[in-house]
Amino acid sequence: METSLVLKIAYAALSLFIAFNYGILLGATTYRIRARVQGRLGIRLYQPYLDIIKNNAKRTSISHGIMFYLGPIFRITGGVGTFLFIPMIYGSVVFSNFSFAGDVLLVLYFIFFGQLGMALGAGEGGHPYSAIGVSRGLAQMTAFEVPFTLAIIALAVQHNTLSITEIIAAQQGGILNWSLFTNPAATAAALIAFLGMNMGNPFSVVTAPQEIPIGPPVEYHSNYLGLLQTNRSIFNSAKLILFMNLFFGGATNLIVMIIKTFLIYMITVIIGVAFPRFRVEQSIRFFLVVPTLIGLVGLVIALW
Amino acid sequence: MVSPIYLIVIPLAVAFFISFFDRLGRGLSLTLFYAGLIALTAISGSWLLSTVTGIIGSEGAIGGQLSQAAGTLVFTAGLEPPLSIALAMGPQEAFFLFFANLAGLGAAVVLGRRMAAESVTAMVLFLMVMLGAQGLVMTLDLFNLFVFLEISSIATYSLIALERSRGSMSAGFKYIIAGGIASALFLIGTIYLYRIAGSLAIADIIAAQPAAAGMAGVTAVFLLTAALLIELKPFPANGWALDVYQSVQSGVVSVIAVVNSAAVLFALYKVFPMLPAPLTNALLWIGITTFFASNLIGLRQSSVKRMLGYSSSAQIGLLISVLALSAMYGWSGRLQVIVFASIFFGHIFSKAGLFWLTEVQEERGWKGWSGPRAAGGVLLLAVFIAALAGLPPFPTFWAKWVLVKSIILQQPLVVAMLLLGSLCEAVYLLRWFGRTVHLRRTAAASWNTPARIALPAAAAAILLTVGGVIAGLAADVEPLMFLPLAAGLVLGLLVWLPSRLQGFIAAALVTAAGALFIPQMQGMASVFALVFYGGGLLMLIATLYKRQDSPGFYPLFAALVLSLGSLIQATGLLEFFLAWEIMTFSSYFLILLGREAEKPALNYATFSVGGAFVLMSGMALMAAVLPPEIFQGSLIAAQVSAEPLLAAAPGIIGQGRDVFAVAPNGFLGGLAFTLIAIGFLTKIGAAGLHIWLPDAYAEANDDVTPLLSAVLSKAGIFGLMLFVLLFPAALFSWFNLPFVLRWVGVLTAFFGTLMAVFEEDIKRVFAYSSMGQLGYIVLAVGLLNQLGWTTALYLTVIHLLFKGMLFLTATAVIDRTGTRQMYRMGGLIKNMPISFISALIAIIALSGVPPLAGFGGKWLLYNALTANNYVLLAAVAFFSSTIAFLYLFRFIYTVFLGQLKIEHRRVREAPAALLLPQVVFILALMAVSMFPNLLIQPLQSALAMFPADAGWQNGTMVSSIGYWNGSAVMWITMSVFILMLLWLLFVQRKPQPVSQFNIVFAAERPERPETTHYGYNFFAPYRKALGFLVTPLAGRFWHRIAEVTGSIGGAARRIYTGNGQTYALHILLFVTILYFLIAR
Amino acid sequence: MSLVSFIGFALILVGLWGMLTRKNIIRIIIGFSIIDTGIHLVMVSIGYLPGRTAPIINSAVDKAQAASQIVDPIPSALVLTAIVIGLAITALMLTYAVRMYRERTSLNIDDYKELKW
Hints:
The complex is a heterotrimer. Chain A is mainly alpha-helical. Chain A has helices spanning about 5-35, 45-55, 65-85, 105-125, 130-160, 165-170, 180, 185-200, 220-245, 255-275, 280-304; one strand at about 60-65. The radius of gyration of chain A is 19 Å and the shape is globular. By secondary structure, chain B is mostly helical. In chain B, about 70% of the residues lie in helices and about 0% in strands. The longest helix of chain C is centred in the last third of the chain and has 32 residues, at about 75-105. β1 (about 60-65) of chain A pairs parallel with β6 of chain B.
């Protein structure tokens, strides 16, 4: 499996390209589904591409300072990095990315890299809405990380490894070997945490449009916004692939990956259109009770 | 050699003739008076010198009762007893007399102005008091004892009668009543002993064994002892003495408390051999109860002198119980010298010194006692209080150590009362001291110390120090262990130099010590040595930013840093404890230098002293349980031992395994380790024991806090790891201590982090953050495997780096903005860019976000936890580490980002002295982030006593369950980051710079930066959701404990009604009950 | 126990009773004197041997057999000393009483309680 560094980088670029496009299309699909639920037609599938191009082509832009300038870069580095540390397709040399650099703990903590950088950049924007959004986002983040961590620890104990590749390997050989079935409680806890992570309803208070228009990125525009949009699609793909790898047996080819991640994503979308929004303290209490208890059950199952 | 008879003759003759000379002129009589006292001191001193040099080396000679090994006997009138009086002068007599006379001389100097102004009677009476003391110590005859007792009593009563203050007459009258009852008992006892033994010579009576001669003999001995005991003010029959202490002038009180008490104590010592066993036992309990109860009541005293009176009573009680213990366990030789002589010596000079210092402003309570104006006066006060409270290097420190070590198995209750009483004493003394320092800084009411007080007090302080060092050397402590104190002393003598220069000298000292000692270290020791010396040096450099002088700062700073080094140098338990105590008190005094630090410093001192006592009892117990040969090898040897110590817990191989394998040693060993662990956890600030921490860190000077948090707090970690290595088997011999340790650690991490989230004060945020971070280290130590301990050491080093940066940044912004409230700051990034970068790197590292080194700590910790199936611990630890994001972001946002306040527009970058250490920390952190193996591999090899459980493959660290390549992560992150940056630079036309204030929200323009900066109560929803978790339960608990203790003390002192008759009744009841107890 | 020592102890108890119950300082001092007297009686009774004479060498005592004819002289000597000391203490107490009366024109011991606790 020794691959030269140049080749590795080329492979990574390829999978990044796929993830980016997949993420954008997935996002557009979501918009369409949500619109249909609300009785509208919705956007065209290529609309997000146009948005990114438009934002990058803006003729004017402002900067509140260096940290403000670097914020989106931190953010997209976080997204791209997270993606690169996750193997996309199990057993594929081409799509294994840079997962040799670290195990699931690295991915877990690298997710924070982008969030922290973004929060800092937004902070220098000086807009109080950014700070309020960050305050809410961080507060909620600490809460949903609890069930998520419990689920991941359960998997690590169950499979006696922290390596994502080995966790996928342990789920091969039939659908019943998936963590979904070997440890349904852990999977359930992680999926609820996933809802929070995606900040859709009922956990959308961070960017609640009615109260604090679009939350932390409020001051970002033009190229910055373009970067943030690009990141959103990559980061979404990364999270979905991570969940697929951990709980749904991974994927041995692109088709399986697309089907699985699409279905996982639909969970968020469906719940998102069906539920109203929690307040911050409500979602914190929720995450620390129901999914946490489920996660503890998952731990018990794993240790059994 | 001058005959000891002159000790009687000189005061008598001088007292007789002084009135005649006084007619010729006051100068002449004063000269005669002081000459007489000097002669007494000189004669007894020469005897001390000759007797001690005569017996040095011959163990046991000092211990023998009434030993004449190197002394002499003289008979009055040239006849043998019973026709004459026999006076003995041996080493003990010489010791007691010399120091009592010296203290008397000092008191006479302090009283100099009064002696010069009043009638000559005062001088005569003073001489008679001294005469009584000489006789009490030297005479070998029981009736003579009575006569000298009465001489000294009558002289004292008369001296009190010369007082002018209001209460002194009634206090003196109460004293006479008590003394009268005591003499009555003494006389009856004496006459019956004469009837039994047919002789009045003490030696004959001892030979006749009166206690064996039936009830009459026991009663007679009892009455005699009771009489002497009452003179020694036992609780609760000591109300009269306290009134005297409070009302009589301090100079005279110092004589009563020191000279009289010492003489009567020696009299008791002489009759000790005739006591029956139950009486000896009773004296032990009376003594220790007096010590405990008096100190407890002392907590509630407002009058300084009455407080000192309680302390005095307590110390005498301690001495009585030590006498009883020596008799019960047949102590002799060095043991007795170190314990009894040290406590006696420490008591005499510290108490005399304190009474002398209170001579000015003696009417005031401690709350208003503003203390001496000169720094030297405060230093004297500090020395006396430290000596009384048993801090090193003063004599009582060694005595308490040896005492506790000797009796902890036989008399655990006595040890408990001793330590609790000592804690109370330390609390009220340090409370007084803290108040004095505070008042001195704030009010102009401090006073000049007149030379007549300053000179004897300084002499007493020097004596205490020298005596303490001698006692320490006698206890086989390496001279090197005194290095921190010596460094503090040298810098203290250089206090007249400019502050910065002192700082440079201190830095040079620390550098020299580090350069000398670090290369000698191996393994774990070298890691901690690097943290202590290196971190200490950098923090020392940072202090150079200060503009105004702060006397005492650098001596304490240097002593603190060097004492941390001494912890590693220690080759025995006592040396370790010595370094620990030096560290404790130097940090206490450092914290006390803070402007508002009076209460926080007291809290710190209370917990530190309490923790140190718990630690001491644990170590003493450990030493008592283990066979002594275990202590032959140095502690260092145990640290670097390549033998896999913890191969298979709980059946671990340790030096103490065989000892702990059998009960009850197993239980005792486990108990000892638990106590030791509690002692260290107090210093670490573990949840429940943490309540001193935020205030102490916050109110210490801004240049002290970085040292406390980044460096000092690691001392507890070092201790914990060291003792685990020393006595691994003890960890499991009672209960599963590592299990508790792990949970304490993780809960500390959780609560520390959570409390940091809700703080507005920047220093309190980082104080709680430190607590949380140390919680992770404790958790890792509790894992007891190589990965866990690698984590612990790794976090220790990394925490030094990032917390050093954070606290130095905090120091810088506080210095520049003049506030500690974060929401009052904001937008400082453009004014202080380097500080911002430092803060940014530090928070990324602390939060554990890759690619910086903080992630290494997280990775190691979760691998170690998950590999051992400690899943709940891992979950709670992870939860805490996400909560850390909240306060970290809040800090950097509210301080550096957001809106710049108008008044901060001209704020400049931090001073270079503060930036320099941060740059060093940044470079170190970046190096470790880039090449984690630079740090982790040496740590792993330092922990070779554990079986290896993680390896390296081409820069990837591989544990049994996970892997991590720090360098690769760094490369990938950097590459992506730079690519994206280049992209943005490429596609974006030059953006127009605008200020933070140039924003619009909800179609409104912001009004002022203050109203636009979202900073106060940043996590309001979080408080709504989880605020109930930070209810200060621990604070309330400890507050309640303090309240209850105070109330008990307050209730106990209600027995002292102030009525002379009630006091007499106390004495009679005391004697009667005691009689029935021992006659039973 | 001889009659004398019994009387002595009785006096001690009487004195103690007086000292503890009387409020007047002068009476307390008198109580003390009574205690002293009682102690002196007890001491004398210890040294007393029936049928012997006082330890004074005069015509009543044969010099050669003095040791067998006189009572033990040491207790008597002690009593003499104790009386002197007792006298001194009583005098001192009375001085105190006078000074206390001058200060507050009261001889009630209950009026001198401002120092306490």
